[in-house]
Amino acid sequence: MLGLAGPANARESFKDSTAAQDTVALTALPPEAQTTHRLVLAGGPFPQAKDGVVFGNRERRLPPRARGYYHEYTVRTPGARNRGARRLVCGGTPPTKPEVCYYTDDHYASFRKIAP
């Protein structure tokens, strides 16, 4: 039998995963996430230098897309001395009109799709 390491298998592993399949209303997210979402739509200004960088989706927890489709943004964590673990990852072009956004509060271990 041949190994199953091709691109189709990567799609299957995403499809079988529950990651990024849960949805959440924007209004149900922490207020800091809502603020970050507004900044994404406005094109900034962003508080962190790394906000807006390409998100590689190396763990394949989000649907496969071409490199450069996803961008990540810091969601402020009150009391944190660093960027914390919370992020928005949005996909689409231009970044100010994302087709989809996801929220993670555990530094990319899991994602919830933000309902439109």
From TrEMBL:
<dbReference type="GO" id="GO:0003723">
    <property type="term" value="F:RNA binding"/>
</dbReference>
<keyword id="KW-0540">Nuclease</keyword>
<dbReference type="InterPro" id="IPR000026">
    <property type="entry name" value="N1-like"/>
</dbReference>
<dbReference type="InterPro" id="IPR016191">
    <property type="entry name" value="Ribonuclease/ribotoxin"/>
</dbReference>
<dbReference type="GO" id="GO:0016787">
    <property type="term" value="F:hydrolase activity"/>
</dbReference>
<dbReference type="GO" id="GO:0004521">
    <property type="term" value="F:RNA endonuclease activity"/>
</dbReference>
<dbReference type="Pfam" id="PF00545">
    <property type="entry name" value="Ribonuclease"/>
</dbReference>
<keyword id="KW-0378">Hydrolase</keyword>
<protein>
    <submittedName>
        <fullName>Ribonuclease</fullName>
    </submittedName>
</protein>
